[in-house]
Design a protein that fits this description.
The protein contains 5 helices and 5 strands.
């Protein structure tokens, strides 16, 4: 039985689209897991910084996502286009934090710290360092006497990126994308 050229083209297009749809699912699950990992690893005092991670599709054809709060779900990650033409314009997702003090919370910029009058919401099993602030960096605390507090270690962000947590979050996202609907996905 001979197969027509048109049938072969249609089959190829159909398979390519299924692959693009699956890749979209993998990218979105991975982005969600990275956002949750950043929220869990980073500092948490009031929750504003933790709740300000966003995922944006780069390019003019990416669908917008809902802004949300931790824990993040797929609703917080934009859908990428799946047609070849649209994919050429937009095929990446960028994760950023929109909190006004994000650079300070990520230890990229020095800041002035003032006790807000309430204790951090990060629970006792989480990281909490007390002592004297050594520099203007949020996490630069010398433990011992002093009223300064830090809810995440100094350089938590570069450590997240290069210390294995980013890779684990990406791997978890890939595994979740492979699961049948309803099993394990947030």
């Amino acid at each position: 039985m001979a197969v027509s050229k048109d049938f072969e083209k249609q089959l190829k297009r159909s398979l390519e689209k299924k692959i693009r749809v699956q890749m979209n699912k993998v990218v979105r699950e991975a982005a969600k897991e990275v956002m949750n990992g950043l929220a869990e690893t980073g500092p948490v005092w009031s929750g504003e910084f933790r709740d300000s991670w966003i995922a944006e599709g780069l390019g003019n054809q990416a669908k917008s996502a809902q802004k949300g709060a931790y824990p993040y779900s797929l609703w917080n990650v934009p859908k990428l286009p799946v047609t070849l033409k649209e994919l050429r314009r937009s095929n990446r997702i960028q994760i950023t934090n929109t909190a006004e003090h994000a650079a300070i919370a990520m230890d990229m910029k020095e800041g002035v710290y003032k006790y807000p009058g309430f204790e951090p919401i990060k629970n006792k099993s989480g990281y909490l360092d007390r002592g004297t602030r050594v520099s203007g960096l949020r996490g630069d605390i010398e433990t011992g006497k002093g009223n300064n507090r830090s809810t995440a270690p100094l350089d938590w962000y570069p450590t997240f990126k290069s210390g294995g947590k980013l890779q684990r979050a990406l791997s978890r996202g890939v595994k979740l994308a492979k699961m049948p609907k309803g099993e394990g996905s947030k």
